[in-house]
Amino acid sequence: TPIKSSAASDVYKRQIRDVAREAGVSVATVSYVLNNRSDQKISAETKKKVLQIANLLQFTPSYAAKILTTGKSHIIGILPGASPDPDFLHIDFTNCLIRTLAAKGYRTMILPSLSESGTDAQPNIDGIICIDLTQEQFSQLSDSYLIPIVCADMIVDHYLFFQIYNDYAGLREKLKGYGQYTVLCNPPNNEKLKDFLSGVFGKNLRFCTDYASVQNAVASAPAPYVTLGNLLTLCAMTLTDKDKILPVSSSPKYNLPVPSFFMLDTQKKAEATVQAMFDAMARNAVEHDLRISY
Fold it and tell me: Most buried of 7, 154, 173, 257, CB within 10 angstroms?
């Protein structure tokens, strides 16, 4: 009926305006891109951005649907941060992701760093789980790929993307019985996650990048020392008494000489990350900021 047609037209126009606003282009440009107007000069970068926003905003009219819905490969790409992880926490997490995805019928592909790969020949994957990227790296990634992206161990604060990271509220609660303490932590690549950790632990937090920085923290900051990761635990053990160390571990399989004070469940975080990827692929309207509590 005419009323139904008019209503559908209003929805279409509103969605066009939403895409234009998020992409930072005109409504006309969005219309040209989605209708594949070859008579209009629009840069490849702008076309890519419009199609990405249209996909993420669940707006897929006929042409966009043909481009963005190319069939499922049942492969999920995993992109770890470029900087080395001295505590192997990301390796443990990646292994959990691979096992969890395999149990659900998905294979995984470890993607090369953004500096090593171009965007012209992209792999045929259904989505990407990125781990601890900088804001600049994430912006480059999200501008280059037109598929769902889930952010693990990082904070991007954008409603289009899921972000999963440890809450640490349980750890902070358990530390309330101590008058003073020092948290030793490897600094994350992601700037907003680093700020989040600083907000959680405040003046009690010391970022340690090498043995010398751990040595300096133990020499200048009060005990006990809460070590986020096994390598920091082992470093601290060479500098102070065992009873002054409170290890935070990601897996019970590591038989450290000091019993774990607090356990981070890497498998729980992996399962939440995989579920977020499935929600992103299905475009489910669920919470995008996922803090993993223990």
Answer: 154
State the pTM of this model.
0.74
DSSP for the chain? -HHHHHHHHHHHHHHHHHHHHHHTS-HHHHHHHHTT-TTS---HHHHHHHHHHHHHTT---HHHHHHH------EEEEEE-SS--TT-HHHHHHHHHHHHHHHTT-EEEEPPPTTT--SSS----SEEEEES--HHHHHHHHHH--S-EEEES-----TTSEEEEE--HHHHHHGGGSS--EEEEPPPS-HHHHHHHHHHHGGGEEE--SHHHHHHHHHHSPSPEEEESHHHHHHHHTTS-GGGEEEEES-TTS--SS--SEE--HHHHHHHHHHHHHHHHHT-----EEEE--
